[in-house]
Amino acid sequence: MSDLPKHTICIKPLNDTIEVESGITLLDAIRNTNISISADCNGRSKCGKCKVKILNQSQLSPTPAELLLLTEYEVENGFHLACEVRVDRDFDIQLPDVKELANKNRMAAIQNVDIKIDSHLKKEYVSLTKPDLDNQVDDLLNLELGLGLEAGKLRIPLSILQGLPSILRKNNYKVTVAISGDLVINIEPGDTTLRSFGIAFDLGTTTIVGTLINLRTGQDVAVGVRSNPQHVYGADVISRLEVSVNEPGGLNKLQKMVIATINEIIDELTRSAEVHFREIYEIVIAGNPIMNHIFLDVNPRYLGEAPFIPTFRECPSYSAEELNLSLLPKVPVFFLPNISAYVGGDITGFILAYNLHERSETCLGIDIGTNGEIVLYHAGNVLTCSAAAGPAFEGGHINCGMRATEGAIEKVVLDDDQIYLQVIEDAEPRGICGSGLIDVIAEMLKMGIINQNGRLKNRDEIDNLWYRERIIEHEKGNRFILVSADDMQAHEPLVVTQKDIRQFQLAKAAIAAGIKILFHEMAIDITDLNNIYIAGAFGAYINKYNAQRIGLLPSIDPNQIQFVGNAASAGAKKYLLSNDARHNARQIVQRVKYIELSRRKDFQDEYTEAMFFQASDLTEEKQ
Known about the structure:
Blueprint: E1 6-12, E2 16-21, H1 26-31, E3 51-54, H2 64-69, H3 72-76, E4 79-81, E5 91-94, H4 104-108, E6 121-127, H5 139-146, H6 158-170, E7 174-180, E8 183-189, E9 197-203, E10 207-214, E11 220-227, H7 237-246, H8 250-273, E12 280-287, H9 289-295, E13 318-319, E14 332-335, H10 345-353, E15 363-367, E16 371-378, E17 381-388, E18 408-414, E19 419-423, E20 431-432, H11 434-446, H12 465-468, E21 471-472, E22 479-483, H13 485-488, E23 494-497, H14 498-522, E24 531-535, H15 544-549, E25 561-565, H16 567-577, H17 579-591, E26 593-594, H18 603-610
Parallel strand pairs: 1-5, 9-12, 12-14, 15-24, 17-26, 18-20, 24-25
Antiparallel strand pairs: 1-2, 3-4, 3-5, 6-7, 7-8, 9-10, 10-11, 13-14, 15-16, 16-17, 18-19, 21-22, 22-23
């Protein structure tokens, strides 16, 4: 029993009260509840996202980190960073009014994928012969014969075997058997063959998407979306890895968080579609390697240490009861195989869904996110790499950044004397998401507000008087007013800072350099490229012309750039419905060659060059 004094924290507007030991941070105190709070930097006092308002401690002085990361208004009105405040007294705190509910259509958009349904799961109705004194067939053999199997060919779990004599006799030997491969998942009274469902999960670093699928028809029945609750321990997978490895009980804590969220999605899907959880017979997970390791409570330490060896690439299936999922105990959970330590089953799913490994043309596949995974196919060869872009594309480490939820600016156009904005849900703007950030930087470049080096110019360097007035010259770097405080009826304007531009340059340079390295390795030129396929919910909303202007995407005919939506979900769906797809997924993993960018001597040079907004990537730039 700890001898440390206890303190009470009351969290508004939820009116939750918690008791914590003295000395821990407010961030850790909140993390120990079920309350979500953003902490992109995992409590390192770098991102400024874990803001709380302290209601009863006006004398609490701001720390140097808070003076750097908070606005003057926030400092003057009692806001603090939860990671900077040590609990040494009772606190009343208020969480910011931020809606983090994901837009289902955005996160789960799946383009049509050609799938030949050949499900691993079979449901067969059998009317068995009643045994008598002349035919003393045992129940298990009777079941095997009724299914057309030889004796001993059926794997039946003990718990189902124990209930077999009762269910056969209660239902006059007329039952339906749900079988995955040769494993009995359930035995049900009567004929239930028309009710057969599975769930395909995209286990993302930022968002988890579950799609309930009719295994007979291949139809999507319902979609459930949740933010990955692990984001309170950092926006990127490396932060999660560090928590898993360095914090006592960290790995198990992260696993329980994601399992709880998966169960929430299962509950939502079954309720919205009026499907009983007992009618779900298979689960497929498509995730990156670190997410997969954490999901299984497998130590991911060696993914982060050279030579970057995962515990598994092709993972065995495990049962729902082993993973504490709210399903029938013996429901198998399958995982799309990982390609390497940093290119996972989500990218295997991308390749599988859109057949990127067997196209006739040279094509490039890009999943733009915290980790930018890139696939290049040419003349029967497939290369892939992972570029550590960081969270900027998802609003992380951006002054007014936020995810693509209600109130996020998603599109920006600058005219000579006006700024046109498109805001998600037509709400009042609260921040800017990744697609909006691409737009505003490309537009500022076009209007001559920033230069090719990414420097946000001083007022006297800008010809346009209207935009000149929107520049705030600041000792910490210039800022550009995107939405004034008056326009929002707010205390502070929405601004793009010099630091935001630098963060964006780092992210886009990682992707652009990774693309160039794959072309070097394949010994081909950009002119050989026929098509680009952009995956991910974020990718579906970017302006491809602006993405090319800033050098994020190669300069090819924009008509050759296609957005394919949530490719990981599409691949998981294909894996769920098709035995051929499962075979192809294993072949993909064996066939794809992974390029480790950190070992390439030319990567740093390409990365440095890609930081600039190259003149060849610009159109109508005003110098």
